[in-house]
Amino acid sequence: MKISKTERGQATLLSLERRLRVSNRSEQTIRNYVRSVKILMDYHCQLPADLDLDHIIDFLHDLQTDQERGWRTIKIYVAAFRWFYEHVLHAKEFAHLIPYPKEKPSLPRILSRQELSRLFDGCQNLKHRVMFRLLYSSGLRRNELLHLKIEDIITDDGKHRVRIIKGKGGKDRYTVLSLKVLEELREYFKRYHPVKYLFNGRAPGERLSAAGLRHALAAATKRAAITKEVNLHILRHCFASHALEEGMNIKTLQYLLGHSSVQTTMVYLHVSEVPLSKAFSPLDCWQ
Q1: Does pTM top 0.85 for this prediction?
Q2: Pairing of strands 153-154, 173-176
Q3: Would you say 226 and 115 are in contact if contact means Cβ atoms under 8 Å apart?
Q4: Would you state the torsion angle of the CA atoms of residues 120, 125, 126, 128, taken in this order, to the nearest 10 degrees?
Q5: Strand partners, 149
Q6: Which residues contact 71 (CB under 8 A, 6 or more apart)?
Q7: Quick one: average pLDDT of 5-31?
Q8: Closest alpha carbon to 78 in 21, 32, 10, 145
Q9: What DSSP string describes 194-240?
């Protein structure tokens, strides 16, 4: 019995998904990689095994020019293609010929402390306010907040920490828990009675969705009359920048943020006031 191209395509994507899961990749990475390879297949109406390097470069070129995608988005596609060709088709040399886009790094955008206060005050209810204050005060990523369980709020032996299980890169870590937010969490517990996840969705025991979190942020931003673009990751950027301004050691901040390299953390030196707050001329120190 002859297998159709559609069936072979589905089998290809299923094989990719299974290998990614066996490799313990995150759900976000699995979705991104499978989606990227499917889009490549749909673009050329061919299976990846039948494509040559020029096919892939043509796709990446059109993706960048026609749709004006940023280099970070193109980078995800390239990472997906490289992983697929190396680990599914076992074509390592071919995989490494697929070029990464030239990076165009930009400084993180942040909100001032006054804008953050307005954002928190613009929340429609206590639950939203606590979520956003926890994101900011602990430097959490969106998915880290959504996957927090009740037992991940650690207050034993006078410690105040948030436990992150399998954050980005599958790494576990602890980060700080604000005493102010802890009091707000206690009030939140009394009022909302969360089950299993710290922030439930519509059904008890079901975690809040990413779409629900984004919708709550958009509503708070509008109520706060903040005209600049605000997304969930900006709250994490604000945590890093403001922590440095208050004197936090950059290696400590690196750990709290879960960065593999301190170079990633050091970008926040450029958006904080740290470089100028204690700056001086060495001539004035002469005796």
Answers
A1: no
A2: unpaired
A3: yes
A4: -60
A5: 197
A6: 101, 102, 103, 104
A7: 89
A8: 32
A9: --SBSSB-SSTTPBPPHHHHHHHHHHHHHHTT--S---HHHHHHHHH
Contacts of 229 (CB under 8 A, 6+ apart): 109
Q: Is the pLDDT of residue 18 over 60?
A: yes
pLDDT for res 80: 94
C-beta separation of 86 from 95 below 8 A: yes
What amino acid positions are annotated as catalytic residues? 141, 168, 233, 236, 259, 268
Closest CA to 130 of 172, 190, 204: 190
Contact 5, 47 (CB under 8 A): yes
**What is the rounded distance in angstroms from the CA atom of residue 227 to the CA atom of residue 125?**
21
CA distance 215 to 226: 15
pLDDT for residue 246 is more than 60: yes
DSSP 134-177: HHHHHT--HHHHHT-BGGGEE-GGG--EEEESS-GGG--EEEE-
Q: What is the pLDDT of residues 91-139, one digit of tens each?
A: 999 999 998 877 666 667 889 999 999 999 999 999 999 999 999 999 9
